[in-house]
Structure formats: structure tokens, C-alpha cells
Design brief:
357 residues; alpha/beta; 8-stranded mixed β-sheet; globular; disordered N terminus
């Protein structure tokens, strides 16, 4: 979900499956253990994270792999150059106990179903200063509350990786809308992974409106679920509606199509009608006062550059622009409760966790 440092670090890598016994090895969790007077980073790493950390000045990770992870990477479709980088200076690590005691920044980017277990074991065995959790952070209100209590009790500063707050296009819109009353926001598109990704847009709505409390209605979702692109998780189609405590109404809408994923964000305020087309990189702003329309092109930043920037900010100042764990939990809980109820109704059974990640 990453200048200031005078020397290099080493990295130790584990899979999420090593922690929870599920045998999953598609997500890797390296731990950067420091030389004297350096920062350490623990992260569930994918190839994007690997490239992002190399962009942090003076941080040159050495990755340690378990034997099972070596086999997983060799059997994967990763380019040979990426595999070579992953295997460079590899060592074997079999136990979490082998990691350094003090960790400055931990990034837990496992799937949501094992994240609380990973967090509990990490906090029990290690001293962590800062923490980033991938979204969806957890799968139920109970897990959110347990994690929040654990994080606070350990004195950890934590954030959740909802990175649209860092996108320049939305930073500019927030400034444009600073003195505007936003009446509605709507996300429309096809195949955008509604169940797993709606939290991103709920967080965006909260960021632009400066409110986190809301009510939500899943009554317009289709009466079916489908397998997510990640095995073991579910997706939904249809519409989710709701309203924030300041009166801002929102709609999240996703349909199924044979075409590649497409998504647009529509924002209506007193004076502006705004459309953000993330697929084409086009921002359209219509001013209702003079009926003028302005159209601008933009590029979405790569996660790798965002991760490097966030890690650098945290390690140098103890702050970053991602939503705090407190705000993120406030946004997660109503959504998880509503979606968990809907999926349970569709499946015809009581479910304790929302099967999304």
C-alpha cells in the first residue's frame, strides 16, 4: 500500500501464507532490517512496491526469500529482469522471530482476510513506529475495531492506502471546491471491481467534502454475486447510494461489460458541474454562472511513485496525506456492514465477514 537516510538497508521477505497457515504465496512480505542508525521498513511487496522503494533516496533494499517463495517467483510470469532483482543477494528466512525487533515503517499489503492476523503477530513480536494498511483494510466492523484498539494500544501511527487523496487532479479539485457546497457525487463505469474498490471512492468523497460520517443503502445492487479476479473473494454489480452528514448525496454504479474497465466521477456543486474521466485522463469543469466549459488533460500517478513519496514523508516527518486509520475505519465500517448484509442475503446465509479485499 515508501531524503533523509544516510545508509542502506537489507530486506527480508515472507509470504502472507507463512503467517496464517493458508499456504498462499502470491503476496510477499519483505522486512527491511537496518544497519545502525537507519530506518527499517516491513512491507507486503509486489513488483510495484519493489520498484517504488528503490526510488527512496539512500534506501537500497536487499530482499530475502523463503524457499517456497523462490519456487513461486520462478513459476510466475514475472519478467526475467524482475526475477533477477528479487533474487539478488537472497537469504532464507523461516520465522517471523528472526526479524529485527524495531521497525520504523510497516506496510501490510496482504489480502484482507489475513491482515488482522498478520497485524496481531507483527505487533506482538515487534516494535513498530509507523504502519500503512492496504485497502480494504479489514472485512468486518469487529476486525476494524480490534485493529484500531491494537494499533492505538501499541502507540503506532497508522494510515490506510486510499491514494486518490494524493492524485494532483483531486488536490486541484479540492482547492477549486473549497468554498463550494457539493451537492452530489457519482461514480459510473464498467468492470471496476465495485465491492473491492468502492472504499476508494467513499474516501475520495470524504476527502473532497471534509466529512467522514455517512449512511449507505445497497438496495439497488443486483441480486447476485460473482467471483472476484482474486480467488476466494466476491464482487457485486448495480448501484449503491447514500449521503454524508453534510447532505452530500452519492451514487456508486458498476455494470458488467466485455470492454476494459472504465470509470468516471461526476461532481455537482452550487457553481460547477465536474466530470473526471480517469480512463482518458480528461477533466471537464462547467461553470454554471457563465456557462463556460474548461477541459484539461491529466495523468494519474503510478502507485510506485506514490509509495516512495509516502514512505519518504512518513520517515522524515511522521506524517503523510493518506487517511488516518481512525478516518479510514469510520469510512470502512458502514460500507462493510451494508455489503456484508447484502452478500449474506444473496447467499442465503449469515456471514461474519465481508468476503472482499
Amino acid at each position: 500500500m515508501h531524503s533523509y537516510l544516510p545508509s542502506t538497508t537489507t530486506a527480508k521477505r515472507r509470504s502472507s501464507g507463512r503467517f496464517d497457515g493458508t499456504g498462499q504465496h502470491d503476496i510477499f512480505e519483505p522486512v527491511f532490517t537496518p544497519e545502525p542508525s537507519t530506518n527499517s521498513i516491513t512491507t507486503a511487496l509486489n513488483t510495484r512496491e519493489d520498484s517504488s522503494l528503490s526510488k527512496v533516496p539512500s534506501l537500497t533494499p536487499k530482499i530475502t526469500l523463503s524457499s517456497q517463495e523462490v519456487q513461486t517467483i520462478q513459476e510466475s510470469k514475472l519478467e526475467s529482469s524482475v526475477q533477477a532483482r528479487l533474487f539478488d543477494e537472497k537469504q532464507l528466512l523461516e520465522e517471523l522471530d528472526d526479524l529485527e525487533r524495531e521497525i520504523d515503517l510497516a506496510i501490510i499489503a496482504t489480502t484482507a482476510n489475513v491482515r488482522l492476523t498478520v497485524l496481531q503477530k507483527l505487533v506482538a513480536l515487534k516494535q513498530v513506529r509507523f504502519l500503512i494498511l492496504e485497502k480494504v483494510a479489514f472485512q468486518s466492523q469487529a476486525e476494524c475495531e480490534s485493529a484500531l484498539n491494537l494499533i492505538k494500544g501499541a502507540g503506532i501511527e497508522a494510515w490506510v492506502n486510499c491514494p486518490r487523496r494524493l492524485y494532483p487532479v483531486y488536490n486541484q479539485l479540492k482547492k477549486r471546491l473549497e468554498n463550494e457546497k457539493i451537492s452530489s457525487m457519482k461514480v459510473t463505469g464498467t468492470n471496476w471491481g465495485m465491492a473491492c474498490n468502492s472504499v476508494h471512492f467513499l474516501d475520495l468523497f470524504a476527502y473532497l467534502s471534509s466529512f467522514t460520517g455517512y449512511v449507505i443503502d445497497t438496495g439497488r445492487l443486483e441480486n447476485r454475486v460473482k467471483e472476484s479476479k482474486r480467488s476466494g473473494f466476491l464482487e457485486v454489480l448495480g448501484s449503491i447510494t447514500g449521503a454524508f452528514e453534510n447532505g452530500l448525496e452519492f451514487v456508486l454504479e458498476c455494470t458488467e461489460s466485455d470492454t476494459p474497465p472504465k470509470i468516471k466521477i461526476h461532481i455537482q456543486s452550487i457553481n460547477y458541474n465536474i466530470t473526471v474521466n480517469e480512463a482518458s485522463g480528461e477533466l471537464t469543469i462547467r461553470d454554471s454562472r457563465n456557462r463556460e466549459t474548461e477541459t484539461n488533460k491529466f495523468s494519474l500517478p503510478y502507485q510506485s511513485s506514490l509509495s516512495a513519496s509516502v514512505a519518504s514523508d512518513i520517515l522524515s516527518s511522521g506524517r503523510c496525506a493518506l487517511p488516518s486509520i481512525e478516518d479510514a475505519v469510520s469510512i470502512h465500517i458502514p460500507y462493510l456492514n451494508a455489503l456484508q448484509h447484502h452478500i449474506g442475503m444473496v447467499l442465503g446465509k449469515d456471514i461474519k465477514c465481508c468476503p472482499i479485499t
